Amino acid sequence: QVQVVESGGGLVQPGGSLRLSCATSESIFKISTMAWHRQAPGEQRELVAYITSGGSTYYADSVKGRSTIARDDTKNTMYLDMNNLKPEDTAVYYCKIKPAGTMGASAYWGQGTQVTVSS
Questions:
Q1: 29: part of which helix (H) or strand (E)?
Q2: Alpha-carbon distance values, 80 to 6, 17, 83, 102, 103 (Å)
Q3: Residue 111's CB: how many other CB atoms inside 10 A?
Protein backbone atom coordinates (compact mmCIF):
# COMPACT_ATOMS: atom_id res chain seq x y z
CA GLN A 1 0.00 0.00 0.00
CA VAL A 2 1.49 3.32 -1.09
CA GLN A 3 0.87 6.16 1.34
CA VAL A 4 0.13 9.61 -0.06
CA VAL A 5 0.15 12.21 2.71
CA GLU A 6 -1.20 15.65 1.78
CA SER A 7 -1.26 18.76 3.91
CA GLY A 8 -1.56 22.52 3.70
CA GLY A 9 -5.06 23.37 2.56
CA GLY A 10 -7.31 25.86 4.27
CA LEU A 11 -9.07 29.19 4.04
CA VAL A 12 -7.08 32.02 2.48
CA GLN A 13 -8.04 35.58 1.59
CA PRO A 14 -7.76 36.72 -2.03
CA GLY A 15 -4.20 37.76 -2.73
CA GLY A 16 -2.88 35.48 -0.05
CA SER A 17 -0.51 32.54 -0.24
CA LEU A 18 -0.35 28.94 0.85
CA ARG A 19 1.84 25.87 0.55
CA LEU A 20 0.57 22.40 -0.23
CA SER A 21 2.73 19.41 0.63
CA CYS A 22 2.64 15.80 -0.51
CA ALA A 23 4.81 13.07 0.93
CA THR A 24 5.29 9.39 0.27
CA SER A 25 7.86 6.66 0.84
CA GLU A 26 11.42 7.15 -0.33
CA SER A 27 11.37 4.24 -2.76
CA ILE A 28 8.30 5.59 -4.54
CA PHE A 29 9.20 9.26 -4.33
CA LYS A 30 12.59 9.03 -6.02
CA ILE A 31 11.21 7.42 -9.17
CA SER A 32 7.96 9.33 -9.48
CA THR A 33 6.51 12.31 -11.24
CA MET A 34 4.62 14.23 -8.59
CA ALA A 35 1.63 16.36 -9.49
CA TRP A 36 -1.22 18.43 -8.11
CA HIS A 37 -4.66 18.29 -9.64
CA ARG A 38 -7.72 20.19 -8.47
CA GLN A 39 -11.45 19.86 -8.76
CA ALA A 40 -13.90 22.67 -8.16
CA PRO A 41 -17.59 21.96 -7.48
CA GLY A 42 -19.36 20.98 -10.68
CA GLU A 43 -16.10 20.93 -12.64
CA GLN A 44 -13.81 18.23 -13.97
CA ARG A 45 -10.56 17.50 -12.24
CA GLU A 46 -7.71 19.43 -13.86
CA LEU A 47 -3.94 19.33 -13.76
CA VAL A 48 -2.36 22.23 -11.88
CA ALA A 49 1.35 21.44 -11.98
CA TYR A 50 3.82 18.58 -11.97
CA ILE A 51 7.49 17.91 -11.35
CA THR A 52 9.37 14.91 -12.69
CA SER A 53 11.94 12.87 -10.81
CA GLY A 54 14.57 14.79 -12.75
CA GLY A 55 13.15 18.15 -11.75
CA SER A 56 11.37 19.22 -14.93
CA THR A 57 8.24 21.19 -14.22
CA TYR A 58 4.93 22.06 -15.84
CA TYR A 59 2.29 24.60 -14.85
CA ALA A 60 -1.23 25.10 -16.09
CA ASP A 61 -1.80 28.52 -17.59
CA SER A 62 -4.23 29.33 -14.78
CA VAL A 63 -1.47 29.21 -12.14
CA LYS A 64 1.64 29.99 -14.19
CA GLY A 65 3.59 32.89 -12.70
CA ARG A 66 1.79 32.53 -9.36
CA SER A 67 2.93 29.07 -8.36
CA THR A 68 6.14 27.14 -7.77
CA ILE A 69 6.39 23.37 -7.55
CA ALA A 70 9.46 21.80 -5.99
CA ARG A 71 10.61 18.53 -4.48
CA ASP A 72 12.85 17.82 -1.50
CA ASP A 73 14.46 14.45 -2.01
CA THR A 74 15.80 14.46 1.55
CA LYS A 75 12.25 14.61 2.92
CA ASN A 76 10.47 12.64 0.18
CA THR A 77 8.11 15.58 -0.10
CA MET A 78 6.80 17.70 -2.95
CA TYR A 79 5.60 21.25 -2.41
CA LEU A 80 3.32 23.62 -4.29
CA ASP A 81 3.60 27.24 -3.29
CA MET A 82 0.73 29.34 -4.54
CA ASN A 83 0.69 33.15 -4.38
CA ASN A 84 -1.79 35.86 -5.26
CA LEU A 85 -4.61 33.40 -4.75
CA LYS A 86 -7.92 34.08 -6.44
CA PRO A 87 -11.44 32.90 -5.64
CA GLU A 88 -11.28 30.72 -8.77
CA ASP A 89 -8.45 28.76 -7.14
CA THR A 90 -11.02 27.38 -4.71
CA ALA A 91 -11.11 23.61 -5.13
CA VAL A 92 -10.14 20.30 -3.61
CA TYR A 93 -6.49 19.73 -4.44
CA TYR A 94 -5.26 16.19 -5.01
CA CYS A 95 -1.71 14.91 -5.04
CA LYS A 96 -0.97 12.40 -7.77
CA ILE A 97 2.06 10.13 -7.74
CA LYS A 98 3.06 8.33 -10.90
CA PRO A 99 6.09 6.08 -10.56
CA ALA A 100 8.30 5.52 -13.60
CA GLY A 101 7.22 2.48 -15.57
CA THR A 102 3.62 2.69 -14.42
CA MET A 103 1.40 1.86 -17.35
CA GLY A 104 -1.41 4.00 -18.68
CA ALA A 105 -3.49 5.99 -16.24
CA SER A 106 -2.38 3.98 -13.21
CA ALA A 107 -1.21 6.23 -10.36
CA TYR A 108 -1.56 6.85 -6.67
CA TRP A 109 -3.84 9.62 -5.42
CA GLY A 110 -4.18 11.41 -2.13
CA GLN A 111 -7.52 11.93 -0.43
CA GLY A 112 -7.58 15.62 -1.30
CA THR A 113 -7.20 18.83 0.66
CA GLN A 114 -9.65 21.72 0.47
CA VAL A 115 -8.42 25.16 -0.55
CA THR A 116 -10.91 27.98 -0.17
CA VAL A 117 -10.07 31.50 -1.31
CA SER A 118 -12.57 33.93 0.12
CA SER A 119 -12.76 37.18 2.04
A1: helix 26-29
A2: 11, 11, 10, 23, 25
A3: 10
CA nearest neighbour of 113 among 43, 10, 18: 10
Can you give the C-alpha Rg of the chain in angstroms?
Answer: 14
How do beta strands 10-12 and 113-117 pair? parallel
DSSP 37: E
Quote the CA–CA distance of 81 and 70 in Å, as a whole number. 8
Running along the chain, 119 residues long, what does each successive block of 10 average in pLDDT? 93 98 95 97 96 97 98 96 98 96 87 97
Residue 14 and residue 76 in contact, taking contact as beta carbons nearer than 8 Å? no
